[in-house]
Every structure is written in structure tokens, then in C-alpha cells.
Amino acid sequence: MGDIVVIGAGFAGLEAARVFSRHRRALGGRRVILVDAKRTFDFLPILPDMLGGRIVRDHAVLDVAEYLERLGVNFENGEAASVDMAAREVRLKDGHALGYEYLLVCCGSVTNFYGAVEIEKHALKLDSADDAAMIQNTVVTYPQKKFLIVGGGYTGIEIATNIARFLRRHRIRKYNIHVVERQEDILTALPEWMRDYCRLNLCRLRIQLHVGASISQRTESSVTLSNGLRIDDCLLIWAAGVQTPGFVRRLPSEQDPQGRLKVGKTLSFAEGAFAAGDAAAFMKKGRALRMAVQFSLNEGHLAAENILRLCAGRKKLKAYRPVDLGYLVPMANFRACGTVLGVPVLGFAGWILHYAMCIYRSLSLRHRLGIARDILLR
């Protein structure tokens, strides 16, 4: 009998920790060890709001060690460097090794720079609350007020609108915000009516779009796009895609192009090993489920339940049957668009629904009340 090791203190990992905490007797004396390099859980859906000044940092982060202590789950503050599947061992960057009987990989995703080393050195990104604070502080002090966001997906659009809101809130009217998207339109996975709505709103905020373009050259003082446009003295923010951490991509298991582990119907990818959240690629109708909080929570819950079944000696595991409740693209000027339970939603109603879900998904009463206060007062 060995330990249960959970890699990642995101939505999926903390949901799994809650399940294990509620069923301690079923663990049969096994320890649950949650591994994460960060000491905080960062509420990713509201990080753009944090950089835009609407949500304060204290309401977007949670102390992982304190939270797990209340659950009776062990916390290992370290970065996973590799997993030896044969030896059933997780090796940390500091050289420490953790043996396991059962493994749950739910380490989320990180920004993908696609091998552009120089851009990675100089560009800002949004993977954490620290990143959000860095962007906000840089926006405040950046004298030229020219910003180039690479990536026209959810994150890029949210970053752009929140920077515009932040500047307007501080009565800065002279600014230039550019969004560059390699594909022929922004938000290409969404229906045309949503893309049209978002484009119109970006225009309202004086955010310039450059679709079908990418960065062809960067110097210390300028960025040149593939369409020939040169933008001088701009702050570069990268939001052009994500991938799983390196140790996941090195695992000898089938993965999708983003390095997500392809899992079966029970969310397992190897004997005694499961994946959940952004690190898992659950295939439905030939495509991996998109990365979303609702799926991370459900997958973390079910993976933990299946590990408990294995602990009890039960061979029949639960199958994952995802239900998509919908999605929203929130923008900082009280507008959003998307679908909820199959019903199209846009405008202020969608914006309110987004924050209602954020409040509901928060991990403590203090955070729920704090987010609600920020929305009403900031």
C-alpha cells in the first residue's frame, strides 16, 4: 500500500482533495499528497479582471497549504520534473522523489511560446495572479501607452478589454491597443454572431485587430508584423496558446497537440494513473473537450472517486459523461456573449452571469463576498 499523489493545485486538484478528505476511511490509511510549485491557488477566470483593477488580489488567490491543512491533505511545495511510470515515482525539481500507488495528474496548462525564445524572454503573459499584477503595474508605468496582445482567443480578448477599462478608469484617453491573431478571425472556435459581437465591442473600445498576421520581427524598440505593419515602443503581451508542463509532454502516453494526456472513459491514461482538468484530453465525438472550469471540477471529482474505488478493491470504475453547461466571453465594459444551457446570451446579462458563476465557483465565503463587493464597488 502506497500513497496517492496529486500533481496540481488547480480546480481539478483541489476538487480531488475535497473528495479524498470527505472519504478518509475509504483511503485505507493511504496518505494523499498534493504537489504544486506555487503556494497559492489562483482563480484563473478572474485574472483578467485583476489586471484591469476590478478584482483585488486577495479575492483571486487562496493559500493552498492552509486550505489543504483543513482538509487533512498533505502539501508538497515543489515542482514536478518527471514521472517514472515503471517505478511509480514522481521526481521533483529539487531532487526529491515521491513514490505512489495511484497518481492523478491535474497540473493545468502554461503559456506556449512555440519555441520563440527571445519573445519568451521579453513578453508578459497571464498564467498567475503574479502575472496579472505584473501586467497591471507595467501598464501603469509604461509611458507610451501602446500595447500589443498576441492571440485573439478568450484570454487575448479579455486582456485587451481589461487594459482598455483600466486606462479609461484612470482617465487615460490616449492609448493604442493592438490584438494580433494568426488565423483569419478572432475566436475562431465560436459561432459567427459571437465573433461579430466581440469585434464590434473591441471597436467601441478603440482596440485594433490584425487578423491573419503574426510577429515577423522584434527588436528592442519595435515589433514588425507579417502584414508589414511596424509598431514602435509597444508593450508585448503573449496570449497565443497554451500547453501542458514539460514533464507531462515527456510522459510515454498518447497526447494531443497541446500535450494533454488522452484519457479513457474512466479518466485513466495508464494503470493506476489518471488525469483531469486541462492536463486531460477527454475525447468526445473525435475532439478533446475544451479547457474549462466546469470540466476540470467534474473530472477531478470523478478521478478521485475512481481512485477510491481502486483503494477499496473494486474493479468497476465510473465512466465520465460530460455535460456542457455553456461558455461566455466576458469583456470589461459590462458586456459578454456566449451560450448558457444552449441559450444565446449577450450584453450585460451575459456579463452578470459570468461573475455569478465566478462567485459560485469560489472556494470560500470570504472570496465569494469579496468578489461580489469588488463587482459592485469597483
UniProtKB/TrEMBL annotation:
UniProt entry tagged with the keyword Oxidoreductase: yes
User: Which InterPro entries is this protein grouped with?
Assistant: FAD/NAD-bd_sf, FAD/NAD-binding_dom, NADH-Q_oxidoreductase
Q: Which Pfam families match?
A: Pyr_redox_2
Segments forming domain FAD/NAD(P)-binding? 3-283
Q: Which UniProt keywords apply?
A: FAD, Flavoprotein, Membrane, Oxidoreductase, Transmembrane, Transmembrane helix
Domain of life of the organism encoding this protein:
Bacteria
Q: Where are the transmembrane segments?
A: 340-360
**UniProt keyword annotation of Mitochondrion present:** no
Give the molecular function GO annotations: NAD(P)H dehydrogenase (quinone) activity
Name the family the entry cites.
Answer: Belongs to the NADH dehydrogenase family.
Q: What is this protein called?
A: FAD-dependent pyridine nucleotide-disulfide oxidoreductase
